[in-house]
Amino acid sequence: MKAIRVKQLRQGNPSIALETVDDPVITHPQEVIVKVLAVGLDGTDKEILQEKYGVPPQGEDDLTTGHESLGVVAEAGAESGFQAGDLVTAIVRRPCRNQSCVNCRNGHSDFCQTGEFVERGIKGAHGFLSEYYREDGRYLVQVPTDLLEHGVLVEPQSIVEKVWDQVLRVQQRLIWEPKTALVLGSGPLGLLAAITCRLLGLDVYVWSRSPQDSLQAKLVKDCGGVYQTADEDGGLTAYAEGLGKPIDFVLECTGFSPLAFEAMAVLAPNGVLALLGVTPADRKLEISSDMLNQSMVLENKCVIGSVNAARKDFETAIYRLQQMERVYPGWLDRLVTNRMKLEAVPKLDFASIPIKAVVDIVPVEQWRGLVKQTNEVEYSFSV
């Protein structure tokens, strides 16, 4: 089968190639072979493909990339819980093997304490940017067929759902009735965060570098949010003060660390700042540390970081994507701005992607014929 590989990661000077690799084979009754329909690309993939910082499996030099997957079960082991034709996505992180990690030992590898976890397509395990992959049924999540066209977005939406779930848990410390959310950044994650906050009933403001006539700005406005192009002269603080209302919830989706510190200052008393973006850099910054510390303490502010997601977050993401399509039909279609074939990935210029790129392993017009037509997927959603 064909797969996108970052080659010679352990040897230095790695390269990207479309290669032919062995087809996966079931070796355990709990395993499943998945035929990949599509894989989404995000900032992590950009860094892996451009900076080539991914970690291959132990004993190997190459890494198959891609972690946002949508596929259909081609072959299912007798104890996997799946059948051929099931539409699925895959959880990205796998638990570490350290027996002292209480979270990994109890099904919460997204809160791994040791850092020894494995992430498919990122760290220590091959990803999904290939024609097929093998997976333990425990790490697959069935997707309803009415979400066939947008199922590749389940993984990025799960990140948003995880942070909202964690914020609700943190805010059990008080009576919290948030009204206003400020989203920093208008990439795929920022836009999904914005529309999610709108569906949660919040007034949403998005502050980003894209111009007012951009597709990003239009998507924000079309889901009822307010978009503001970042003004280098005024900055975030001036913009937040100009809103004239408390900012209860800030989602930092750019990974630009100076914004994170500025966001702490503009956050309302009792508010929460969620950090969702990370940009590899060696940046130094001078801040008014005493004033910031005083604000955080005296006004009961909270800052949390969040990355990766658990099964329940994937399941809630499925619900939320269905809700998005129902309330704002066509919005998700516009979020995906670039579709390409597997062969195009080695020469991909990420700067040419306005918002979101998806690699179609199988032509879209063939998808429905491969999937078992059923919507009988029941989850206990955390909404």
From TrEMBL:
<keyword id="KW-0560">Oxidoreductase</keyword>
<dbReference type="Pfam" id="PF08240">
    <property type="entry name" value="ADH_N"/>
</dbReference>
<keyword id="KW-0862">Zinc</keyword>
<dbReference type="InterPro" id="IPR031640">
    <property type="entry name" value="Glu_dehyd_C"/>
</dbReference>
<protein>
    <submittedName>
        <fullName>Glucose 1-dehydrogenase</fullName>
    </submittedName>
</protein>
<dbReference type="InterPro" id="IPR013154">
    <property type="entry name" value="ADH-like_N"/>
</dbReference>
<dbReference type="InterPro" id="IPR011032">
    <property type="entry name" value="GroES-like_sf"/>
</dbReference>
<keyword id="KW-0479">Metal-binding</keyword>
<feature type="domain" description="Alcohol dehydrogenase-like N-terminal">
    <location>
        <begin position="29"/>
        <end position="144"/>
    </location>
</feature>
<dbReference type="InterPro" id="IPR036291">
    <property type="entry name" value="NAD(P)-bd_dom_sf"/>
</dbReference>
<feature type="domain" description="Glucose dehydrogenase C-terminal">
    <location>
        <begin position="149"/>
        <end position="360"/>
    </location>
</feature>
<dbReference type="Pfam" id="PF16912">
    <property type="entry name" value="Glu_dehyd_C"/>
</dbReference>
